[in-house]
Amino acid sequence: MTVTFAEKLARMPGYQAGVPTGQAPEAIASGGIAQLASNESPFPPHPLVIEAIQRTAAAMNRYPDPDATLLRRRLAERYETEPGRIAVANGSCEILLAAAEALCEPGAEIVYAWPSFSMYPYLPALTGAREIRVPLAPGDVHDLEAMANEVTAATQLLIVCNPNNPTATHVPAAEIAEFCERIPPHVTVILDEAYIEFQTHDDPDATLDLLGDFPNLVLLRTFSKCYGLAGLRVGYAIGSANFRAAVDAVRQPFSVNALAQAAGAEAILHQDDVLRRVESTVAERLRVEEGLAELGLETSESQANFSWIDLGDAGEAEVVAGLGERLIAVRAGTPLGDPGHIRVTYGTAAENDRFLGGLSELLD
User: Fold this and answer.
1) Domain assignment of residue 196, given as a range
2) How far apart are the two ends of the chain, measured CA to CA in Å?
């Protein structure tokens, strides 16, 4: 008799990381590989964040604070809200998975755009809920009207990735507000804002004002991108106290390790550092987008820290392989939901020059 596994495993899409399995981090850090595949920051954490991690490391014989008290308090102070409305997790992905577990079961519906963040298909697969994928509108932007039209009495969860991954497009906060007006209160709307600091349409905090008007709205953010803490995996949600209690109820205790808590609690204090990182990234964004246009390639309007590039007649697999041979890692569009594209993160100026030069060679 053989072991029988749950049927839902067959529905799991399987996550493909941007770094090849077994890739040594030191090879990336040394500059041998231009790691432009995972939408990370090319800059290390703030020096005081590193000091906070080092101080905390001496107490690794103890479990972390199960309530992440300091981190949640500092987040609450930063966003002028109550700690009870903030959930923290092992990356924002954990909150997505927990939200699905807490809100959905067979017979429920989950609505999201496609292509969008590759974790979203896991949510219906895990819970047995019915997934409703809504195609993006022209320009690779969310079709909010079409998404609203898909909402039914069975809809439990609706996700808007804004800016959208992998297409880098952004919907202004005013349009999000109009959209939320159309969504009935029984639907939890998650606004996944992992890249919100990089967009230039609004103040990054503009959507915070919507939380008072829409109790069913949840903002999802992360320290992985503009704070340079991808390696520690810490994300957070701002919503209702009920939402926080629900996601905490279905997760394991101590899900945010002590180093991540210490790093996040210190990093949130250095908004000047965030601004410098964002300004540098936006400057490189303009330069890379101009370089791609000179190569005759079209991109969506990027409001994130990466470009979504239409390769036209160039073969996706050949371009990805050719860049890989030149030690430049990018993400292929096929596993992200749209063949014929690649997604490339903005790295350092030197890394971006390598990318543009390598791509030019391949296209020639």
Assistant:
1) 59-267
2) 58
Instruction: Round to whole Å and give the CA distance between 38 and 31.
Output: 15
Summarised one tens digit per residue, pLDDT across range 342-354 is 999 999 999 999 9
CB under 8 Å to 130, separation ≥6 — which residues? 107, 108, 109, 110, 124, 154
The reply to whether 1 falls in a domain is no
Residues 163, 185 within the same domain? yes
Between helix 241-249 and helix 92-103 the angle, nearest 10°, is 90
Domain boundary among 267, 287, 314: 267
Q: Which two three-digit tokens encode residue 98?
A: 């927990």
Q: How many domains does the chain have?
A: 2
How does pLDDT run across 190-199, given as a tens digit for each residue?
A: 999 999 999 9
Give yes or no: residues 172 and 235 share one domain. yes
Q: Return the number of other C-beta atoms located less than 10 Å from residue 117's C-beta.
A: 22
- The residue written with tokens 């400057």 in the block is 283
**Cα angle value 30/332/234 (rounded, 5°):** 60
Co-location of 194 and 276 in the same domain: no
Same domain? For 145 and 292 the reply is no
What span, in angstroms and rounded, lies between the C-alpha atoms of 168 and 93? 18
β-pair type (235-238, 86-89) = antiparallel
Q: Which among 248, 224, 222 has a CA at the least distance from the CA of 236? A: 222
Tell me whether residue 121 is in a domain: yes
Evaluate whether 288 touches 302 at the Cβ level (below 8 Å).
Answer: no
- Token pair for 5: 């596994």
171 close to 144: Cβ distance less than 8 angstroms: yes
Nearest to 164 by CA among 192, 123, 197, 133: 192
pLDDT tens-digit map of 113-166: 999 999 999 999 999 999 999 999 999 999 999 999 999 999 999 999 999 999
Are 195 and 284 in the same domain? no
Yes or no: say if 94 and 255 are a contact pair by the CB < 8 Å rule. Answer: yes
